[in-house]
């Protein structure tokens, strides 16, 4: 297939859920502008208004998409305020959404090339709502970019330092002690920490490892390499265990259960890890 015949990809990620028509409307707007676009969903179940979780999901996903993919991402608790709508080119991809730190984890991994504020009215809908920029600003901008419009046409240039940043912090390890927190909770209730597996190459060594939640008086010490390695069945207690998640971070799970619900853990919960020889 020639380069000219490859259909552009527009990937959507939001916290809208699928109970209303908002996601479908955004896709309809995009296809009305660039009908040849391939529309792909990352997820629409980001924890509501949780920018940090959205940033993590995006960073765990984008690299598996074709070069040139345009990501339209809306986790936007500041919609209608003075926060800027932006588009950013980083690495081989383009990211469209609110200027609230949603792209920080991507920017920590990829080379920043350029960014603009989405100020050109030619590349948004004629009527712009104060509460639905996903439909009126972000989806149109993403579709135009996928259709070949240059990023610079959409608005004024921004430098990396101009963008709003959150702290995409990773866990800190000092000797046998790790200070961490809950980064994400997936649909199964698995707890994803901000401990990269590279920080604990001894995760499955003979050392004793424990991840504790001080505020909850809870701790997990059992480790398993995969879910089927956990005893299960009638009459056997479901116990939480530590594992290496496919995202590259340390996770906590319960086989056929919900670890977050069982341990009463929520986003941002502080974790203290200890590793003893």
UniProtKB/TrEMBL annotation:
<dbReference type="InterPro" id="IPR023227">
    <property type="entry name" value="SAM_OH_AdoTrfase_C_sf"/>
</dbReference>
<dbReference type="InterPro" id="IPR046470">
    <property type="entry name" value="SAM_HAT_C"/>
</dbReference>
<keyword id="KW-0949">S-adenosyl-L-methionine</keyword>
<feature type="domain" description="S-adenosyl-l-methionine hydroxide adenosyltransferase N-terminal">
    <location>
        <begin position="10"/>
        <end position="155"/>
    </location>
</feature>
<comment type="similarity">
    <text>Belongs to the SAM hydrolase / SAM-dependent halogenase family.</text>
</comment>
<feature type="domain" description="S-adenosyl-l-methionine hydroxide adenosyltransferase C-terminal">
    <location>
        <begin position="180"/>
        <end position="271"/>
    </location>
</feature>
<dbReference type="InterPro" id="IPR046469">
    <property type="entry name" value="SAM_HAT_N"/>
</dbReference>
<protein>
    <recommendedName>
        <fullName>SAM-dependent chlorinase/fluorinase</fullName>
    </recommendedName>
</protein>
<dbReference type="Pfam" id="PF01887">
    <property type="entry name" value="SAM_HAT_N"/>
</dbReference>
<dbReference type="Pfam" id="PF20257">
    <property type="entry name" value="SAM_HAT_C"/>
</dbReference>
<dbReference type="InterPro" id="IPR023228">
    <property type="entry name" value="SAM_OH_AdoTrfase_N_sf"/>
</dbReference>
<dbReference type="InterPro" id="IPR002747">
    <property type="entry name" value="SAM_OH_AdoTrfase"/>
</dbReference>
